[in-house]
Amino acid sequence: TKQEGRNSYRFFSPEMQLHSVRQLHMENALRKALERNELRVFYQPQISLATGKVVGMEALIRWQHPEFGLVSPLEFIPLAEESGLILPIGVWVLQTAIHQLKSWQEQGQPPMIVAVNLSAVQLRQTYFPQIVQQCLKEANLPAKYLELELTESVAMSQPHKAIAMLDALHALGISIAIDDFGTGYSSMAYLTRFKINKLKIDQSFVRKIGNNSDAEAIIDTIIGMTKSLNLETIAEGVETKEHLDFLRERGCGEVQGYYFSKPKPAEEIQIWLENWSN
Ligand code: C2E
Ligand code: CA
Ligand code: CA
Ligand code: CA
């Protein structure tokens, strides 16, 4: 009816209309971003607390658009997922990160892995393990140097498919980390059935170290759980010495965050590495 029609308009504020115009515009621009070479991969170091050495680099995508400026992945990844563009973009990130690690190895940088974020859309592709294998083969990089990060919700959205997919990736020799751990819904039963290597403690808990005993208890519990399940732990969002000291004392394996370095372009990370590995 007319009444309902009018009512349904109530939900569109001018702001929301503006927002959706921006989204539409951005979706079109994203389509061209790959060919126009506007996408970048930044890297953020991961440090072992046992040795103090850099053991990995997380690859984080950036989009530098001439009109929108630097667009956060928090804004454009969901758009890329809805439109399916995440598939070519995801392959590009994999290729770029794998080639970068290979070139760091050839330069004689310390042994590191590269960690690449995965979206649920990528994991739903039946041929995803073959795609990853092809990317590794092209760069002649052994699978053990690649880690894939996926969130609990990505894994739990279709748990049976995820189990099969993670089995296949594991069989290739790739390592798997569960990102943002502790923020999503995950069942212990499934956790033991997923072939995973590492839990990544979410930065929302790390941020509260020193002023929230619940968050500290959750971190303790996650570290304890990884030990009994024989998994590795990494904490993200480490910004202060207090965060670092707490995590070291509680037996966390690896750390990553602004305390060490913000995500940076490969050339800047190389300079950072020279100052670190002394
Ligand atoms: P994430 O995977 O949980 O990445 C961690 C985010 O925390 C990154 O934001 C990183 O720059 C930021 N971060 C790192 N250290 C600190 C710190 O000490 N303090 C604070 N406050 N933040 C820190 P970023 O780069 O904006 O990425 C946001 C999200 O976008 C990522 O969250 C990930 O879910 C997604 N993303 C990024 N790159 C890719 C990609 O290549 N593919 C997919 N599918 N998703 C990606
Ligand atoms: Ca991540
Ligand atoms: Ca995370
Ligand atoms: Ca996240």
Description:
This is Diguanylate phosphodiesterase. Residues 23-277 form the EAL domain. It comes from Desulfitobacterium metallireducens DSM 15288. This protein has 278 residues and is α/β, with parallel strands linked by helices. Helices cover 51% and strands 20% of the residues. The protein is built from 13 helices and 10 strands. An 8-stranded mixed beta barrel has the order 1-2-4-5-6-7-8-9, surrounded by 4 helices. The longest helix has 21 residues, at 86-106. It is globular, with a radius of gyration of 20 Å. It starts with a helix and ends with a helix. Mean pLDDT is 91; it is low at 1-12. One calcium ion binds at residues 58, 117, 149, 179.
Molecules bound to protein = ligand C2E, calcium ion
What class, by secondary structure content? alpha/beta
Low-confidence stretches: 1-12
Task: Give the CA-CA distance, first to last residue.
Answer: 73 Å
Describe the main β-sheet briefly.
8 strands, mixed, barrel
Organism: Desulfitobacterium metallireducens DSM 15288
Protein name: Diguanylate phosphodiesterase
Domain EAL: 23-277
GO biological process, one term: regulation of DNA-templated transcription
Structural key phrases:
278 residues, alpha/beta, 8-stranded mixed barrel, 13 helices, 10 strands, disordered N terminus, binds ligand C2E, binds calcium ion, Diguanylate phosphodiesterase
